[in-house]
Amino acid sequence: xxxxxxxxxxxxxxxxxxxxxxxxxxxxxxxxxxxxxxxxxxxxxxxxxxxxxxxxxxxxxxxxxxxxxxxxxxxxxxxxxxxxxxxxxxxxxxxxxxxxxxxxxxxxxxxxxxxxxxxxxxxxxxxxxxxxxxxxxxxxxxxxxxxxxxxxxxxxxxxxxxxxxxxxxxxxxxxxxxxxxxxxxxxxxxxxxxxxxxxxxxxxxxxxxxxxxxxxxxxxxxxxxxxxxxxxxxxxxxxxxxxxxxxxxxxxxxxxxxxxxxxxxxxxxxxxxxxxxxxxxxxxxxxxxxxxxxxxxxxxxxxxxxxxxxxxxxxxxxxxxxxxxxxxxxxxxxxxxxxxxxxxxxxxxxxxxxxxxxxxxxxxxxxxxxxxxxxxxxxxxxxxxxxxxxxxxxxxxxxxxxxxxxxxxxxxxxxxxxxxxxxxxxxxxxxxxxxxxxxxxxxxxxxxxxxxxxxxxxxxxxxxxxxxxxxxxxxxxxxxxxxxxxxxxxxxxx
Length: 494
Fold this sequence. Notes:
- The protein is an alpha/beta fold.
- It has 15 helices and 16 strands.
- The longest helix is centred in the C-terminal third of the chain and has 25 residues, at 380-404.
């Protein structure tokens, strides 16, 4: 039995014990050294198995602590008094099947309606929330998270008002992070802290309105980030929808649409997931420089690229000072932190945004900024990104595999090159709203693709399924329910 087969056996055994309820949420697993000795395999085999199980969402490993089963198997809570669970699996030299593991690649499928662990009754199952926008908040190391907030608590009290632009310590760390991850290094003075992406957009719209002396016209992607669009209009802007194609926003339509600014998410368009090629990026920047258009770059999901080479940020290609770059921590850490940042170009636009920030005052609590600066400075943020990238890649791969055998004619999965969500579309009269309603009855929550459109019907029928915060068993269940709902709705669209 080769190394990969040994890893598969260990992985399959743990999965099986989770599915049948032997292992419950919170139960510790043996250390990799102990389990390797019990099974007579190399410790690296168990390390690789635990790593795969962690990525699949069955267990959570922590440096210096026991690996533990996570929630999501449908079996609540650890059993009282349980310490550790003895694992045994088929290993080289064993005969028979002491654990009934007939097929190590299929250790009890949570999507199988004949599995005794699946009653089919939605009343006894927890809701699986697959609405987009929820990251794996609990994936960060407890040690790193607590250390960040201890740093915030240890920060000296002072009799002063907060800098409206944000704490210098956080802005310095953001400059370093942008240089490492996005290929450009602004000055600290160009970085402004905001209370989430929506507040950042409203801030920029307010600055453009003050600079122009009228309501700015801002082109937006359609379908696109509707909360961001509302933030622009609430700040007095007029939004102009422009369709999205395979390469992002349609530059041909944009070229004949007179606007003052354009909002794009070029790295992973939300929600369709298209990636703007470098040639298109350069064409957009050239158009902006020629027409005096401000480019608002929402660097959405740039941290989570599952397929293909990294694509440079628009701000990294900008030689004419036309890009206002927006990023944040809502999809990498926790949306409840309400912390984002704006990187402004030098010149009149940057000065207007800073003036608007100063007029509004500081909006993100200093303890939050101190904690985030600590996570960035100590490398904890990058370690966290490495962990969740692996997790999200596992889930993305599961979706891709499941959909190849969906049995739904014309079903297409989009947005799987990166990010935390997938878009499922299909031909015919069955609407996303109908599928959403059927799935909700079964306890699975998704979003209707039509809700992201300004011009209705532009993207066809579909749903948006977020997979950032669900375990692999929960994702399997959600896919079962959604695919069944698509089949049923196609058969009976009324």
